[in-house]
Amino acid sequence: MASFGQSHPTDTLFTINNIPFSSQEFKELYQANNQLSIEEALNLYILFQVKLAEAKRLRIDTLPEVKHELQISRDVALNSFLYPTVITEEKIQEAFNRIQYFLKARHILVKISKLDNDTLVAYQKAQEVYQDLLQGKSFKKTARKNSDDQSVKENNGELGYFTAFDMEYRFESAAYKLKVGEFSKPVRTQFGYHIIQILEKIPNPGKVKIRHILLEYQPENESEIKQKIDSLYTILMKGADFAQLAKNYSEDKRSAPSGGILPWFGLFETHPKIEKTAFQLKEIGEISKPVKTNFGYHILQLTDKKNYSSLDDCREEIQRLIASDSRSKLSTEELIAKIKKDYQFKENRELLSNFYSILDYAYADLWEPLFTIDGKKYTQEDFANYLSQQASKDIYENFIEYINRIYDNFSNNSILAFYKNQLLESNTDLINLIQNYENRVLVLGITKQKVWLPAKQNNKGLMEFYQNQINRYNNNVDFESIKQEVTSDYKMYLKEVWEDQLRNNYKIEISQSTLNKIVQQQND
User: Are 207 and 275 in contact (CB under 8 A)?
Assistant: First the structure.
C-alpha cells in the first residue's frame, strides 16, 4: 500500500483505484469497537472495501441466492424503522403485574391454511366453536373434536403453566384477562385462532441459581452410589468447598468444570424434584440433603435467588425481556393508525357501495378516489384492479362482507407501501443502514464464491493442498479422519491467496497525514 499527499480532499483516508474514501465512517466504526490497533482495523476496513469493489465488478448481485439475501437484508432494515422498539412505563408495569403469577391453561386451536391467505374460513370455524362453548358444551370434548393442535388427543388441549414472556403477546394478553374457569373469544396469533381457558393461577416464586453434584447410578450399583453421595454430603457439612467437590466428583459433564453451576431457572423449567428442593433453600450457600431423580443422586447448593416482589429490583430484567419481545413493537394496526394521522388520510368509504352490485369491473367507470393520503389518490379503479387479482371460495356467499374485507386489505397494504416509499426516499439513516446491510451481503456473497465453495467442492485442489502440507498433519491417521481439519486449513489458504491477489489488482493509497490525525485524536 502506498501513501499519497494533498491531491485529494483533506478528510480522505485512503483511495482504491483513485476513488477516495472519507475518514468519517472508519472513525465511527473504530470508536464503536476498538479492540484492534488503528492500523490493524484500517487494513481490515480497506480489505472489506476492496472485496466490495470486486463483488460489484463481478456483478455478484445478479446471482439468484445473492438477490434473495439482498431482499431479506432490505426487509430487515426497513422493518427496524417501520416497527421501532418502544418500551413504555405502561408495558413495564403490565409485564410486572403479569409475571407475579403462573397460569395453567388449555386451548382450542383453529389453524389458518398456509395455502390460503384468506383467514375468514378459519375465523368462522373459531366463532362456531366459541358459540358451542357458550351453549355449555364441554371444553375438553370440544377441544378433542375441533382443535388443530396435534397434541390434543394426549393432553385435551392443556398447555401447562406459563408466565409473562412465555407465550406470544396476544395470547398472553388474552389469557391474563381471564379468571380461573373462564374462556376467551377467538384470539388471533401467528398460529391461527385460539380459544383459551384458564385452569389455575398460582404465585410465581421467582428464580434460583444453584450448584449441584450429580452421581449417576444403575440398578446394580445404586446402594454403592447412595453411600458415596451421603459421604460427600457429610464432607460438605464439615465445611468442604462445594465447587471443588463438584469439579472432582460430579458426573454432569457440562456443569462440573464450572464447579457445578447451573443456569437460572424458575418453576416448570427443570425436574420437579430439583425445583422443589431448590426453592426450599432459603439462604445463599445453603446445601440440600441428597435428592434422587431419574438422572441420579444430586446435592444442591443455593448460590443466588431473585423474586419479582419489587419492580425496582426487576425493572432492568423486564426491560430486556420487553426489548426482545413483540410487545415492544408497534403493531401493524397501530402503525397504520399513526400513518393515517401523520399524513392526513381521508376516506370516501361510501363509494364502496358501487362494488356491492358491479361484478364486471373491467367495463365500469370507476375513477373517484376511495381514499387519499398526503394528497395521493387511490381510486375505485385502483381497487378494482386489486380486487380482480383476489380469489375466495366465499365470494358469492358473503359478497358484501367479502368486498369490505378485501378493501380493508387494499387500503392497509397501500398505506404501508406509501409509508415505506416515504422512508426509502427521505430517511438518510435508513438509506445508510440498507446500504451497509447490502454491502455485507455482497462481500459475503463473493467470499462464498471465491473461498467457501472452492474449499468445499474442489476435491482435487484439496488433495493437492494436503499433499503439499502433509508434514503439518498426523501421518498415522487416514485422510478421512482429518478431512475437516484439512478443509478448514485449505479454506484459510484460499482466502489468503485471494486477498493477496486483490491487493495486487487494486491500487490502494493511504493518507498518512489523515491517519496521523486519527491516531492523535484517539490518544488525546
Answer: no
